[in-house]
## 1
Amino acid sequence: MSGADEWHALAAFTPARVALGRAGSALPTRRVLEFQLAHARARDAVNAPFDAAALAAELDAMCLTTKAADRAAYLANPDLGRSLSDASRVGLARGAYDAALIVADGLSATAIRAHGAALARAIRASLPELAWAPVTVVTNGRIAVGDEIAQALGASLAVVAIGERPGLSAADSVGLYLTWRPRPGVTRDADRNCISNVRPDGLPLDEAAHRLAWLARQARRLGASGVGLKEDAPERLTDESARA
């Protein structure tokens, strides 16, 4: 077996698979096993059962479903996850709301199970001035399902917290998507702002909520989101940096 990879120092700066070393013409056995474990975790995150009822109870939220009847249909037909089921649609009541918070399993139920409740609480606490619609928890949901929910509730701002497609170094990332005045079938991806890699080992939950709050206030001030709203939120000063 060869010695340490000469690029080994780079590995201290990223969880990506760099500087793995060599054993002859192949990877060391330990690195192969690590890859197989990461791949298994990613597959588990996509296929893990989502206990929407438990999360909804924790958040005092409503449970909704999409037109994807099961996980297999959800994965094979992405459009099904972008529309509510008929039963869920009729259960939404319009109100005088500023914002709707939608929590969906997306492609990683593992991520939402781990961080969904804490993140939802942090988001609402970061924007106390808004009239929030009841939180909704969606099974087999994709980002665009938030458009239909926000419009049905009468909210001008949609915030979707959704499990991100797992990578081989992170299976528990949550993405946040903010959309101003969403319209089902009309709103484009370019009309949304995204905050990605929200997880304890990525962008911390409270920092993500801080950035989202800045974006939401700017969206309400400008009447726009997505390409019409530049994400240049100022860095939040820590106690140490404020004293420096």
## 2
Amino acid sequence: MNAPAREEAPGTCSVLNVPGMHCAGCMAKVERAFGNLPGVTSARANLTARSVEVIHDGQVQIPQIVDALAAVGFEAQPREDIAPPPSAVKPLLAPLAVAAFAGMNVMLLSVSVWAGAGGATRDLFHWISALIAVPAIAYSGRPFFTSAWAALKKWTTNMDVPISIGVILATALSFYEVVTGGKDAWFDGTLMLLVFLLIGRVLDAMMRDRARAGVDALLRQAANGATVVDDSGLTGWVEARRLAPGMVMRVSSGERLAADGTILSGTSSFDQSLLTGESAPVPVGPGADVLAGTLNLDAPVDVRVTATGHGTALAEIAQLMEAASQSKSAYVRVADRAARLYAPAVHTLAALAFVGWMIAGAGLYKSLVVAIAVLIITCPCALGLAVPVAQVVAAGALMKRGIMVKDGSALERMAGVDRALLDKTGTLTMGRPVPDPATIEAMGVEEAAVALALASNSKHPLSRGLAAALSARGVRAETLANVHEEPGRGLTALWHGRTVSLGRPERGEGTASVLAIDGSPPRLIRFADALRPDAAEALARLSALHVEASILSGDAPEAVAEVAGQTGLAGRGGVSPAAKQDATIALQQAGHKVLMVGDGLNDGPALMKADASMAPGSASDVGLHSADLVFTGDSLLAIPRAVRAARATMAVVKQNFALAVIYNVLAVPLAMAGMVTPLIAAVAMSASSLLVVGNSLRLVRAAK
């Protein structure tokens, strides 16, 4: 959805990602953010892409635009205006619509002929049918004709060759019947054939588009430029593709890195959760390595570039995801192999029927009709619909329960899983640290007021959690003086002349903060990340489905052990993205089918490599794009519900395959025996397809 541009004018065009833009109100705020920025001509927000396109003159630089958005509360990162990849679905929609519309009209005319219309009336209806059908078939059949012609030009064949031959011959013979005043025409059957074939192609293209979006989303996490400091101390904005090892980037607070590097000066903390899964900010100082895509939280730092472009850790994760996505295509390879066998088999059957009837003395017309009937009746519509229709019906049922199926073939893989790897923060837990309620209750009035005053001065997740808990109790903050926050250590201030502080414990205490008031004993405040609702029931249901679950997280081992103790699951912490993928592969090599459930960028490679994957709706863009299924609610029951629905879907798919095989075993001999006309062949083919569709509709209640 696009907002209207304020005005159009020539100038420099910059596009920035604005991930915090969620509604039309946000769009208006983003566009108004540039009202007082001289040199900006127009701004157009795009809610779907969560970006803003800014037209400005050469005097305005990217950091100024970022600052203008920050002033109205939106974090933004510049990016190149990359043209979106072409959609595989859109080119098929118009042919499908034309075939369906023409098919309905021709069918109405055919019903009259079937009802007994004859003579001039029948001829008139046939001519009208021809006028509607021939252009529609020529247009709607182009996806198959083009593919078949490309194969034939290379002296090979594919699944589209027999389909194209059958459609063209049936159309030509029908037109011959119309011109010669014959009683039969098969335009309705031909159009019906195209409709069912195009439906299958559209469903397949939808799945491919969604799979490709994952890697694109990952690569957009890195900033597309940085402020570079040269040897003379001058600064200037440099695009990411022009960065080189040895350059020095000045990274301000709230800015993402455009390249990997090493801290030269300054101390701060970085949000590395997208890469490592560690939910707590990581303190960094001179000599520390920092990675592209991570977010500087506290203070400006100078970073010497060590790796750019495809050499960054972020790009390596993208490559892992791409490789994993390609390795998941075994199902597609089986389908392609079946398609290669299908074409010669159908050609052979049709040729045998034609030659046999010619030898039997039936004549060219009769032999041709029989061959066309064989080509049409062997159309693999029922076979082709057996899987996608069941997937679509099951996906609709899951959607009503808050589970979005992004990749229909994932239901097939989900049905066979016997191991589940669960990320901790944001997946098994809510991802929002909450202070220990007993500690909060034990605080005195002044102690709580000082703690709230300190916590409200920081954006640290633990401070935000503490401030929220104290505010919910109705605590009123004290007035502090000389408030100072030191990255990685915490806050200090003066309260009635006494030094107060809120910061990390001296020793490892898990996820905790220490409140210190001069003259009083320090108070340790532990935090816990609450489990998702229904976690215990969900894990019990998974166990009942014979799916063994365990925790695989990038968080600190101590934090993982705590959650593992609460859930009774085996847990492993401190796992890198590559190690998560390796753990998934190891289970697969041991003969297991793995379901990965995660939400972060660090889960991306494992989500792509697993046999099936799920992510919560609160996941990062990469997690959402990489996962096969996304559940939008907080409840963890979505996981066993999806597994159970997937198994029901595969049971129906097997029934559909059986129906399709039985249909071909019965129909093909009848067609070769000359007992089926092209019209009856089209009706039989359509009936088999409807039978498959009807059987699949039983899945509307699969997501109980």
## 3
Amino acid sequence: MKTFVFFGAAATAATLASAGFGAEGDTLAEVKARDELNCGVNPGLVGFASPDANGNWTGFDISLCKAVAAAVLGDSSKVRYVPLTGQTRFTGLSSGEVDLLARNSTWTFSRDTDLTLDFAGINYYDGQGFMVPRELGVSSAKELDGATICIQTGTTTELNLADYFSANNMSYQPVNIESNAEGEQQYMAGACDAYTTDASGLAATRAAFANPQDHVILPEIISKEPLGPVVRHGDNNWGDIVRWTLYALIAAEEYGVTSANIEELSKSSENPEVQRLLGITGDLGAMIGLDNEWAKRAIMAGGNYGEIFAATIGEQTPIGLARGLNAQWTQGGLMYAMPFR
């Protein structure tokens, strides 16, 4: 009798799970039917998301788009990149223009609730900073009283900027811009004394200058900017897929699974979590409507989190960002994947 009840409950759970995919998993079904992932990205921020002369997109955020496509469609190239500005990114996601937003977006209360969006995790811990021409001789943001400041509208940086100057009894004149490309243009044309955005964005922007050494990123970080991929409310299974794809990349670095050794570890690893991550044991894939090698494909698309970081924005790239808070938790950072079990 107990055996009957157990299997009955299991069957009911499986039925409900299947029903759940049908009721909530529309994005997964749509992506599979389309055979292409629509990924909303920054229109152009070197290191994070930018196209080359041939229209090939590369960057830190692009790598997540590719990883999700590999997990869901089995091919990391099946992505249509949709450039979205700070003003259009959330409407682009809410309207269904894109399936996933991977575009330097800060996780905030109002975006998570009032905009009815879900942040699927954090892929970069950032903070807002300031960049000024070296020739101004400014060494601290507290010397910017009365300055003109270029700032992207529709971003959290607008409110942070107002809060910071108010708290320090300083004034400023905003120069509103709509994209990083326009900000770079206005800043280089001298339309503003300083440019403010996420510190990672400043580093990426400066790296694209002809003479990056002529520009200084000031030491003050005036906000917390947890950046991460975003999906729509109401499609929990799709949110799980994006969230656990990101976690797969982070966990792979923690457990030493790289693009170079993943095939060998698929055959020889004795680590139970690695075995579950790579689909050797367990049935984690079925729980999110995918096959059991979804995470393996995601990792193979561009490497683990550390490999992606190093190749796109790390210290050996022109962007030159240190891992800092984005190091693994085992290395003093905040990067931490939930357990694969």
## 4
Amino acid sequence: MLNRTIAPGFKQVEGISLIKPGHIQFNNGCNLFHFNSGDQELVRIEWIFGNLRFDPANPLLNIAVNAMLTEGTETLSAAEIADRIDYYGAFLQVDYGYDNSTVTLYSLNKHLDKTLPVLHDILNNSVFPEKEIETFKMTQQQKLQIGLQKNDVQARRKFNKALYGDTIYGYGAELADYKKLNQLNMQAHFKQMYQPSNCTIMVAGRVDAAMLNLMGDTFEANWKNNQSKADTTQPPLQPATEKFYFVEKADALQSAIRMGRPTINRTHPDFPAVQVLNTVLGGYFGSRLMANIREDKGYTYGIGSAMTSLKQSGSIFIATEVGADVCRAALTEIEKEVNLLKTELVPEEELALVKNFMLGSLLGSLENVMSHADKFKNIYFSGLGYDYYDYYIETIKSITSEKILQLANQYLDYDNFYKVVAGKY
């Protein structure tokens, strides 16, 4: 019988075994990657499109067109689309990201012959009805007005604008921007962006030859490119020269703090090592920022740091909300923790804990075939291969305190951080 009073033995993660995809390139230019695993007769199919070049004159087009894809086609209303998907126990969602926009279908395999034609219709014949556009504008403007009352929203918008300027990464919607949306410009944007040569399809779940043939019949022969090629290039990033921003809220009980700087993305050799540095600083519940500013000082319920990896850039940032009366003190403690990493070696015991946390998180994130597909997307859209994950694991296992110290001096320059405070200061 298992003796539960004795802790399980410790085993270090030596490597991970990732499910690798099959690949089909359709004659229309669309790439399809498929991951077959699992006993359930269920698949997740993602149609991933590169966002078109950011247009400052109509900055909401990428976001709005993606959000309204399911609001009607030439033959189906929004309600009819929803009814057809629901009837077959399927689920449909659209998601916007800075670099790509995605349409995702979860469906039982036995109903794909009914659900895929609905997706084909959406990706070819969306019409963006005027009535639905007006409803979208009204609801989104209301959401924006509510969002702008929140300090963390204000801090995030200011921070992104400071790092990236008037680009797709730095943009924050304004109420007036919604007035620029109309049926004509949304349809033109849709025709240029949602075409097979600008699409990558990811299929994960129970995949067989019949299913792939059905995908080919629906999205190869019957899905054609338009004359206008999708322009997915983006304007150069425009970091601001001003480093400190204060959004005053005289009645604020809490102040939102966001600070950081543009840095490397996943394609840089230092990225996994800087992720270790970030985890020590604020990347998990036992991090230094949490231990000091939450557990010791009691200034906040939560504080963390994170790294982003985008197509054109990356960033490292710290975010929290603290009591308005201790905002300056919290900033002082954040600076102290950053500078400690630049001057003192991380103790071996602490570094070992962080390594185990990161390797365990990697293993824990591979819970099903869909998460394997997600891992592939990380490297595919970064132009990397599967050896990235071998390099990632080896970097974590072998990194030393001396290397952490060197990286902290290279990447954590507190004086050059962009700093935003929304609330009281």
